[in-house]
């Protein structure tokens, strides 16, 4: 039998000691174990899908709930109206004509509603009346009715729609607003037309609507001079717009890129575009 090698025993003892020390050290300092990744179980996925569906169902309720909070109401309404105006303006087709009707379909003049916001007749002095034109035009100044009547006259049977819920078919006559803007050298790249009225009403139009071939500076109804209660001596007739955009008793017209006031009703929360 061969004697044991003392170096081998020593080495073995050293390794054992080192191994023991390492184990003791590992026991003192716990090692981070990588977290196993696994796909969510079917129950977890189903729960997430249900949660998303329920959240989508709740969204309209939450939005309605926000409307119930007074301090949010005005902001939400203005945002909604603003988005509607933005979308409507982009859908507007400048060359698309509103429906026109036969004479047999006209609402009788005697039953055509008289609608205003303040008084039926602001008592305009016809002899002294002028339309004051300013802003981005080459020929600003005061224009009398014969200057408008010298432009090509257009007569059209179109529907007048009131925001209150009624509508009638009327016969309107006058000069195209686009022809008048050309006469005064208006900048057609400007954004807006604004008008002021003898009864303190005011309104604005986007330029695309102002240039529409059916937008009239109206001085006739039913082939007769415009009557006082219907806006004489001059009003707007815009069959592509709701009634409150069609201002009566015009006294001022301005071509501009900036408006501080959109319109009498619009500044109280109504739509600024309101195309039909």
Notes on the structure:
With 276 residues, the chain is α+β, with helices and mostly antiparallel strands. It folds into two domains: 44-91, no CATH class; 103-268, Alpha-Beta Complex (Sulfite Oxidase, Chain A, domain 2), CATH 3.90.420.10. It contains six helices and ten strands, in the order H-H-H-E-E-H-E-E-H-E-E-H-E-E-E-E. The chain has helices spanning 6-28, 42-67, 70-91, 145-149, 177-183, 207-210, and strands at 131-135, 141-143, 153-161, 167-176, 192-197, 202-206, 216-221, 224-225, 235-237, 250-256. Strands 2-1-10-5-6 form a five-stranded mixed β-sheet. Strand 5 (192-197) and strand 6 (202-206) form a beta hairpin.
* H-E string: HHHEEHEEHEEHEEEE
Number of domains: 2
Shape field: globular
Class inferred from helices and paired strands: alpha+beta
> What is the helix content?
25-40%
Unreliable parts: 1-19, 80-89
Beta-strand proportion: 15-25%
Q: Return the average pLDDT rounded to an integer.
A: 80
Largest sheet: 5 strands, mixed
Give the oligomer, counting copies of the same chain as homo and different chains as hetero: single chain
- Provide the CATH topology of the largest domain: Sulfite Oxidase, Chain A, domain 2
How many strands appear in the DSSP assignment? 10
Task: Spell out the CATH superfamily of the largest domain.
Answer: Oxidoreductase, molybdopterin-binding domain
CATH architecture of the largest domain: Alpha-Beta Complex
Main-sheet strand order equals 2-1-10-5-6
User: Given this structure, which CATH class of the largest domain is correct?
Assistant: Alpha Beta
